[in-house]
Amino acid sequence: MTRSTDEALARAAVLALIAQAELTPKPGLADTRDLQARATGADLLALRWSAKALTPGFAAMAAAARRPGEPTRALREELGAIGRCAEWTMARAGGGAATGPLHHGALWVMGLLVAAAALRPGAGSEEVTATAKRIADHPDRGAPRRPSPGSQVSATYGAPGVRGEARAAFPHVRRALDALSRARAAGATETQARLDALLTVMSTLQDTGPLYRAGPPGLRRVKEGAHTVLEAGGTATPEGAAALSVLDAELRERGIAPRGSAALLAGALFLDGLPAPAVPAPAVPAPSVPAPAATAPSGR
Length: 300
Hints:
InterPro entries: CitG. This is triphosphoribosyl-dephospho-CoA synthase. It holds the Pfam family CitG. This protein is mainly alpha-helical and 300 residues long. It has a single domain (3-140, 159-273), classed as Triphosphoribosyl-dephospho-CoA protein (Orthogonal Bundle), CATH 1.10.4200. 65% of the residues lie in helices and 0% in strands. It contains 14 helices and no strands. Helix 4 (55-66) packs antiparallel against helix 5 (73-93), helix 6 packs across helix 7 (125-136) and helix 8 packs across helix 12 (208-231). The longest helix is centred in the last third of the chain and has 24 residues, at 208-231. It is globular, with a radius of gyration of 23 Å.
């Protein structure tokens, strides 16, 4: 891999983050309906600037992964340091505060996947997520010691959060990729396929966002609502679209935002946008060459 490849991975990551943030209508989550309102400070222009500000950080993560060529503890700590700097830069680019759709959980997911993709160029999604797990298994001695809302929820309810997802090789990222493929094959639009992938994650993820806001009953409602949309045939059907509208209205009214699910969808969109792994061409047997005819001895 080269510097240009690092930059390509960084651009792919930024595009995936923007695609996730602009996907509409996301139940309970900020999307273009909110981001069009410039007065909120979270308009589309600020969102795109804050996402693009992450490009150098992601490129640095890819380059950091290339140097050792293996998922070492030193790499994990370097990625953490780069990520904290990138998060600060993102906040400044977004107007001085972290922009809602691009919170630190999405940055954590994307940073690990970018580094893993750099370590395993041309690999498929399963190998990339397995490599990301090997990176996440290492502790980061430079990480802040102060508790975060996610860590508090994890300690209270035992929810793994995005860090637990990483240490399990991102099972919900892979579920989202499968859901994308199924929806596309069934004739859904790209927006519908992505919404179905998000709902697939929401239907089973122990998302710390709803747990922090509304406890286990709130998380249960998120899962049940997402499952109802999928059982109705997904967002491509009138029944599924109606169920999505009901769920969205309820989550917005209660202030429940499944941000962990959105972060994992962004990771899936990043992997989905990478070039497919090359399939080796079948070996072609060499043409047989007839053996030279035996010559009779001269008798001399």
